[in-house]
Structure formats: structure tokens, C-alpha cells
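Sorry, any thoughts here?
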Amino acid sequence: MTQVSLSYQLDLDDRSIWITATPSQTAKGSIVYVQELGDFIAGRNYFTRRANLPSYLIKYCISGEGILEYDGTVYAVKPGQLFWIDCEKPQYYRTSPDVGDWRILWVHFYGQTAKAYYELFLAQNSGSSLMNIEADGAVRSTLENLINLYKNGDNNLLDDVQASGLLTLLMTRCISAASHQKDTSRLPEYIVDVRSYINAHFTEQITLDVLSKKLSINKFYIQKLFKRYMGLSPNEYLIQTRLTRAKQLLRTTKLSISQVSMDVGISNIGHFISLFKQHEGITPGAYRQRWYQGSEPAPYETIE
């Protein structure tokens, strides 16, 4: 295990709250859980510099201003904004010297699903760790509810379960707000063109080189920007489109597995079965049986 790198100076008002949680082993092994949390009223000299900590951190700014240096970007964190970071990566955050004070509600957390939620947040937030959340009072109230849950220091498994639900709500609200702010109706035209081409030609061989040639866009630009706006790479989107169609065919026709594989553009049936199982957790045959449960397949219909 890599050793945590840490230096900090607190410079906190006496009214500040700092809570260390001790979740049960059951919680740590099965759900997302709180590690530390608090309400800091920080002065001019407050800072933390850290890396290699297995934790995710959400900090919500109530007043004042902070500075976050993370993943090659410097952010000014103003009231009504929050940042969400992976503390395995180097990070440096501090009170803005131009303002001199910074009040933040925050929570360190880890466990099952945390990474997946974090990656969804980045995908919806165009790769940025900072977002405006001022209009969503639920984020602040959820952080305050978490603090109230642990402030007595005598938490049990039920508290950990309730905290897990609050953390999931908090992460979901962040992702939802980021998604709402990213107006998909304003997708760049070239992203719409790439998506439309994949939807229309998913049964064919599609590579970045093919997309680049057909749409006259640099393939590396396609890869980077499609991931930013869609949350998936072009190849991941292609696989998703093919598997969605495969599930439709498995449920609505009597086509053989090999024919379904061919009809969605995957010529190697072994690869199709492996890909299907990787994404769905079961084989195509088992998927078909699960949905039919002994009944006859429904008549084939084109599903737009």
C-alpha cells in the first residue's frame, strides 16, 4: 500500500466541527461509508496538501472562498459551489489569500460504488471537479444531516446504513445537477454527427479511422470530445448500441445466438457471448431464457 502524503494547517474557528467516523466492518465491506466529515470555518492560513489517500472528498462552500489545485487545474471555489475529488490523486486546497476566510461543509467517504458515481459525475460535468450547486438546497441539507447523524460519536450499523443512503443521495444530486447544467440539446454538431452515424451503421465495422474519414474530423479529437459530452468513448457507445439491439432481438425473435451476433455487427460469436456476459452478467442464451421463462418469443417488431 502506498503511504499517504500529507501536510496541513488547520487555522479553524472554535465553532468548527470535525468528526471522525468508525463504520462497522459490515458497512465497509458492502456499502459506501463515511470516513470523516465536518463544518469548517477556516481562516487565512488553512490548507491541506495530500496524495495517496483511499477516499473521495466533497466540499461545499457556504461563504468566503477557497482555492483547489487538482489534476492539472486550479479552481476558485466560491459560495454555492462544491468540488468532488479522488484523494488518491495529489491535491492542494486552501483559503483564498485574497478573501481570507472560507466556510465549508465536507465529507470524506469510500466503499462500494463510490468510484462509479465519481466517474459518472466527471462525465456529466465535462471532466471538471468543480460545479455550481447553489440552487440545490438538498446538497447542503444532506451534508448537514450526515453531520447530525455522527455528531454524538456513538454510531452503529443502522446509522452507517442511513449514512450510506445519504451519501448516495448526495452523489446522485451532484450528478443530476451536472447533467442538468450540461444542456444536451446544445451538443456540438460533430458529436451529434458521430452519434447519428453510429446509430445508423452499428452493424458495420466502425473504428475511429472510419469515423474520421466519413465525418472529416480528427480521430483523436473525436475520441476526446465524444467522451466529454456523451460520457462514453465512441467504441463504448458502439458496444452499448449493439448490445441494446441484441437484447431486443433475443427477446422478440427466435433467431439463433449466432445470427443475433451477426445481425448486430459482431461476426465472432465467441466475442459476442463474452462481451454480452461482461456487460449483462449472463450469457445471451441465459438472458433469453430469463425473459421467456418457458413462453414463446413475442412476434418480431422493429423498435425505433
